[in-house]
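Long-time lurker. I teach an intro course on protein structure, and each term I like to show students one example going from raw sequence to a predicted 3D structure in token notation. This year I'd like something fresh instead of my usual example. Would anyone be willing to generate the tokens for the chain below so I can use it in lecture? Attribution to the forum is fine with me.
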Amino acid sequence: CQKRGAIACSTNSTTLGVGGESFKAHFVGRSRLAPFLNAWLAAPDTAILHHHFMTGHILEVVDNYDPTTEVVLLLESFDRAMFFYLKNLPITPPQCYEQVCKTWDEFQPGVSAGQDEQLPTIC
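-- Reply from a regular --
Happy to contribute to a lecture. Here you go:
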């Protein structure tokens, strides 16, 4: 059973490392999504693009999407918050995660095992 929720990603606090630029991303489960959206979208420096994509609409999508084949992505970039509902993907999200885990070293050139770079987590 796949857990419902959204991937929240911010490009506002990037870090530059040997492998390039990285940014914070985490999975917000459905049970925590409403409070997260209310706090995130209420921040004075965040304006959501396309104002009709408000909390209720995002929650409705999360309640109805298929987490085995689709992805809900919330992206923060500077003072903008964007909502993406990704469908018809060439690889399913579980397959993608599995492939990233298997080939994680390829995503971290120049970083030896045990250093700060860690696999993405699903909570």
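Some talking points for your students: Helices lie at 30-42, 55-64, 93-102. The first strand starts at residue 5 and ends at 17.
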